[in-house]
Q: What sequence folds into this?
């Protein structure tokens, strides 16, 4: 099933080219997803936004409109780089399964609305989940291909580099400072909750990597297969409830990032 995919996972995107993982930028990313959907359906004269939406999605749509009107077409990073300079056509489309979308919404609500945190370290951690997927694919395909290992190593590398830069909410930073010491990989501490956030940002990250269109399409299929694996094991990999944030960070001795 998996053919070899040549991709330079070592090419990392600087912080000045990324949007941090704040409530506002989560909404921006979802707005971009909808924009891609509208472009795809434009030939049939149908808009992705014409479909009935759940109450949670409707709420996000309202906020998307508000943010887009406020920012206009000149959305720029602090360094002055226009976000719209990246062609929408080049962005890889990663369709996150509906149950995992709900997981992302619950994750956001637990942390930003209820002041809760994921208790660390997580079991299984990101490394463990990637290893389980490798075993799953090897058993299903009857062999272990180079491309699977390469993609998983790439995901691990991107997660370790992206976590502190764009995947954490502000309220999680004190916990990160306590949990991740020098020379400790975040993929050995964090689990599925934060790994799933990476897939929200991957289209933006991969837009800056030099990948041929055909290779990009194959990579998209592999990433979707991994998401289906997460969905299949959702009850095992993800927490159903988070712990009280004040108790987790209590007595840490480090200042909070307000």
A:
């Amino acid at each position: 099933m998996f053919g070899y995919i040549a991709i330079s996972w070592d090419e990392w995107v600087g912080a000045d080219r990324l949007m941090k993982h704040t409530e506002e930028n989560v909404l921006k990313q979802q707005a971009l997803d909808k924009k891609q959907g509208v472009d795809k359906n434009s030939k049939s004269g149908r808009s992705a936004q014409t479909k009935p939406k759940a109450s949670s999605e409707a709420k996000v749509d309202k906020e998307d409109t508000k943010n887009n009107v406020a920012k206009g077409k000149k959305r720029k990073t602090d360094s002055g780089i226009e976000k719209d300079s990246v062609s929408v056509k080049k962005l890889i489309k990663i369709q996150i399964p509906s149950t995992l979308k709900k997981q992302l919404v619950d994750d956001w609500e637990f942390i930003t609305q209820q002041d809760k945190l994921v208790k660390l370290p997580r079991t299984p951690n990101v490394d463990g989940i990637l290893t389980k997927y490798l075993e799953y694919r090897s058993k299903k395909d009857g062999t272990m291909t180079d491309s699977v290992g390469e993609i998983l190593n790439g995901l691990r590398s991107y997660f370790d580099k992206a976590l502190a830069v764009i995947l954490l909410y502000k309220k999680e930073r004190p916990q990160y400072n306590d949990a991740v010491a020098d020379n400790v990989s975040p993929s050995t501490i964090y689990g599925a909750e934060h790994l799933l956030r990476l897939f929200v940002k991957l289209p933006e990250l991969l837009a800056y990597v030099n990948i041929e269109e055909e290779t990009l399409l194959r990579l998209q299929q592999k990433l979707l297969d991994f998401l289906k694996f997460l969905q299949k094991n959702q009850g095992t990999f993800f927490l159903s409830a988070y712990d009280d944030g004040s108790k987790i960070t209590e007595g840490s001795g480090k200042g909070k990032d307000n």
About this structure: Residues 146-167 form the longest helix (22 residues). The mean pLDDT is 74. The first strand starts at residue 116 and ends at 117.
